[in-house]
């Protein structure tokens, strides 16, 4: 019986998504979205409110989840030397897939010649950003103040601090045991919170997608059809071909199972357009559905959400070719090589949040001397493209997490191959046991009495 019930959340989320697209399209195509009432109270009111509350709820989980799970990951790794290997392998794989992503994107975009003969008069202004020097990116990995890093959700310094804390606990040994056990419990509690938040996902996904689709400039989509089609094609190629070949080649794991189980994570990424906000869902899926041990996932997932952006790199490749052609600039081979290098480097220093891809693009443009205002050409369709590329970004994070875990013997293949493993059964997971409730109350009373 439970299999039917267990599937219900995924099915509900998919339904929420489909319904969101339908309602969004209806509002857009009928022009209702321009009606002041619909605009104020529905799209920018109800949909916006529900969607933002949900994204906030996800973001709320990220820092404590990463913090506690990394402490547990480091303390539970068994052999601390493995940490260095996991770090090295995941960094190399993240950089490699990003470089392949952008190179493929450039090749595809160049062979389609997109952007040539384009009308470059654009009304949308775009002001770029200078790229921070690489030295600063490395300096910033070490937080001056861990609380400040946590308050700002700066992932790399949080990762650094948590790992160092875990290592120090290991060095301290038995004395720190209570702290480690506390972190273990805190981690489990955070995972419960993930389940609670995920259980309202179908409604939130509906609101997020309906709002985004309603606001889409469909006419823009048509006039930028060349760019959009090539970009989406390159993204799909990367997801279904490059990443799946990489997965099979490096780990021998089944791509079909991967694609089946990653769907939920992709929908969350698509709806929120943020790899960072998706961390709790990616972490849950990778550990409980794929069987990746927490000692690997607690590091590779938040690390990937920050430094790995295959989808974003693809957008940068396609957009560079598109705008270079539109402005009749010949970048030449060396220009394109610079683009590849810059995009890979830019992805290290920027977090996975909505719209950051455009900022990275402006950094790349400054390097190769392309006009930054050209970005205004693609601005109108970027929200939708952001949603799609974020889904590819998180798929890359999960691919590398699985490969690294498998290579370290930290992936339970039985869990990976079991289609029902870790399926969220909201009815069971959200249950509070009456006896436990009474016992907890009794325990609290006991403490009070002792006082
Ligand atoms: N939204 C993307 C992410 O969070 C980044 C981007 O491409 O703008 O992964």
Write the layout of secondary structure elements.
Layout: H1 2-29, H2 36-75, H3 81-112, H4 134-139, H5 146-152, H6 155-172, H7 177-199, H8 201-214, H9 218-223, H10 225-251, H11 255-261, H12 263-272, H13 275-289, H14 294-307, H15 310-326, H16 332-349, H17 356-368, H18 376-379, H19 382-407, H20 413-417, H21 426-429, H22 434-450
Helix pairs in contact: 1-8, 1-12, 2-6, 2-7, 2-8, 2-13, 2-14, 3-10, 3-14, 3-15, 3-16, 3-19, 8-12, 10-15, 10-19, 12-13, 12-19, 13-14, 13-19, 14-19, 15-16, 15-17, 15-19, 16-17
The structure holds aspartic acid (ASP).
Notes on the structure:
The chain is mostly helical and 451 residues long. It has one domain: Sodium:dicarboxylate symporter (Proton glutamate symport protein). It is built from 22 helices and no strands. Helix 3 packs across helix 16. The chain is globular. The model is unreliable at 1-5 (pLDDT under 50). It binds aspartic acid. Residues 273-275, 309, 312, 352-357, 386, 389-390, 393 line the site of aspartic acid (ASP). Aspartic acid binds at residues 273-275, 309, 312, 352-357, 386, 389-390, 393.
């Amino acid at each position: 019986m439970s299999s039917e019930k267990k599937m219900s959340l995924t099915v509900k989320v998919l339904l929420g998504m489909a319904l969101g697209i339908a309602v969004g399209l209806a509002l857009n195509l009928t022009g209702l979205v321009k009606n002041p009432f619909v605009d104020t109270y529905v799209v920018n009111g109800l949909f916006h409110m529900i969607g933002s509350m949900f994204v906030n709820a996800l973001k709320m989980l990220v820092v404590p989840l990463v913090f506690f799970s990394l402490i547990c990951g480091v303390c539970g790794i068994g052999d601390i030397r493995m940490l260095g290997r996991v770090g090295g392998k995941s960094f190399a794989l993240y950089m490699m897939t990003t470089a392949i992503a952008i190179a493929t994107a450039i090749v595809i975009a160049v062979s389609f010649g997109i952007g040539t003969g384009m009308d470059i008069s654009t009304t949308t202004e775009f002001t770029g950003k200078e790229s921070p020097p690489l030295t600063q990116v490395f300096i910033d990995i070490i937080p001056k103040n861990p609380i400040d890093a946590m308050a700002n959700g700066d992932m790399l310094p949080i990762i650094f601090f948590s790992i160092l804390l875990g290592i120090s606990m290991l060095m301290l040994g038995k004395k720190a045991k209570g702290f480690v056990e506390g972190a273990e419990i805190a981690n489990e509690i955070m995972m419960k919170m993930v389940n609670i938040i995920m259980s309202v996902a179908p409604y939130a996904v509906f609101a997020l997608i309906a709002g985004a689709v309603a606001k889409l400039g469909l006419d823009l989509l048509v006039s930028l059809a060349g760019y959009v089609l090539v970009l989406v094609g390159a993204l799909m190629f990367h997801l279904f071909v490059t990443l799946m070949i990489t997965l099979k080649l490096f780990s021998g794991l089944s791509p079909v199972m991967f694609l089946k189980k990653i769907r939920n994570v992709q929908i969350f990424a698509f709806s929120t357009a943020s790899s960072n906000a998706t961390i709790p869902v990616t972490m849950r899926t990778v550990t409980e559905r794929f069987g990746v041990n927490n000692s690997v996932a607690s590091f590779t997932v938040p690390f990937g959400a920050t430094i790995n952006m295959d989808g974003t790199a693809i957008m940068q490749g396609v957009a560079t070719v598109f705008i270079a052609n539109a402005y009749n600039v010949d970048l030449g081979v060396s220009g394109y090589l610079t683009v590849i290098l810059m995009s890979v480097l830019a992805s290290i220093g920027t977090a996975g949040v909505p719209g950051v891809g455009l900022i990275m693009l402006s950094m790349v443009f400054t390097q190769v001397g392309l006009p930054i205002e050209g970005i205004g050409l693609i601005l109108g369709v970027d929200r939708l493209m952001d949603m799609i590329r974020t889904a590819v970004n998180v798929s890359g994070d999960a691919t590398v997490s699985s490969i690294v875990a498998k290579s370290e013997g930290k992936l339970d293949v039985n869990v990976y191959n079991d289609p029902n493993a870790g399926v969220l059964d909201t009815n069971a997971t959200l249950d509070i046991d009456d006896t436990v409730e009474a016992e907890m109350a009794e325990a609290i009373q006991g403490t009070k009495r002792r006082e």
